[in-house]
Every structure is written in C-alpha cells, then in structure tokens.
Protein: SET domain-containing protein
Organism: Apiospora kogelbergensis
Amino acid sequence: MGKESKTAPKNWPPALLYLAQPSYAPHLAKEQLDALRTRGPDLVSEIPLSLPKGPSALVKITAITQPAHPANGQAGLFATRNLAPGSLIIPYYGVVHSDLALPQHNLEHEKSDYDLRIDRDARLAVDAAKAGNEARFVNDYRGVRERPNAEFRECWDIRLKQKSMAVFVLPAGKNTAKKGEGGIAKGEEICVSYGKGFWGSRNNDDEVTIERAANTL
C-alpha cells in the first residue's frame, strides 16, 4: 500500500486520504509491477530525486468562489510562484490499479473522474478519487481560460524507480503561447485539458460542468 502523509496541505478535505507517494491495489500482478518498474527509452520526463515528498511549495488548493467558473463552490489548484515553461509542477498520486481486475474493481474506476492511464500495454492506471495529493484538484481549462497552461504527462520517478504520472507546465509554444513565451504566473490557476473523451462521456460536451463533489472544501 501507499504511504499516508501525516501532514496534509492546507484546505485538504478531511474525508480524503492524503498520499505522499502512490498506493497500490492488491490485485496487481507481478508482471504489471515489473512493467511499472521498467523504464522505456521514450520515457524522458522525470521526477527528480531532489523533489521532497509531502505537500508541494509550488501549489495551493483554493476554493473557487467565482459564479462563472465551472467549478464554482468546489476547488482548484493555483501556483504559489512563477512556474517556467515545461517544468514539473507536481506528481499525480493515487491508487495504481489494473483494468484487468475483477469487474467490481473496474466499475469503480471507470466511474472515476480522477483516473489516468500510466501504461497502456500493461493495463495500468492511477486513480485519485479516494486518495491522492494536490494534483487531483487540477481543473479542466474549458470555461476557465482560453487554453490550458499545463498537462498530464507520463514520466519516470527517480525516487521510486517507477513509471508515474505528473503535472507539467506546458512547453512554450505548445497550445498556450507563442514561442519564447508561456509559463504560469504566481496566483494563476493551473488548468489542463481533460481531453474530448472525458467530456464526450458526459451528457453534453458543450455544457462545461465539473461534478466533483470530493473537491468541495
């Protein structure tokens, strides 16, 4: 299982488990764990050994109180300092699981809005619905800003020696800014694109609503 941190960040919901590193579902097979701990040549982004565990100094969880915001009444993740284009913001922690598990396990994760694929070939994903870290509070950019300023990215965690998911600032020139520009300013909300697949599975892709009761502070 994962390691629960004794110190959760400010505004962390008391009903949720805060993780200082990933948790692991008991149904994972040895072959899947081996795949999780094998770094392929295409996995170039890294979580460095120097990154401290526990609450991040780069972000803060903040209640959304703007009526026009899709997550009004819930929460978002905001930068506490200027973040450079392409830089790591925070790892995405949750329960690492397999979609090859029993149907009752899969159904729970299929309904989750916090489930991200780590390794497609090994059928591995990480779900932060019930346990995670600050990264689970990253909102979709739709209805918030013109374009995303960050992205979920598969990477290699040097500390844990395994594949991971993390939130990175978009590189300059990718979707959000002209070449030589970009980054996230202090106080700015960190927003990614959940992808068309996420919204396509909802009732109406044109109605930007984020039903994330767990994000209510």
User: Anything to note?
Assistant: The chain has one domain: 17-200. The longest helix spans residues 103-110. Residues 176-180, 197-214 have pLDDT under 50 and may be disordered. The CA atoms of residues 41 and 145 lie 34 Å apart.
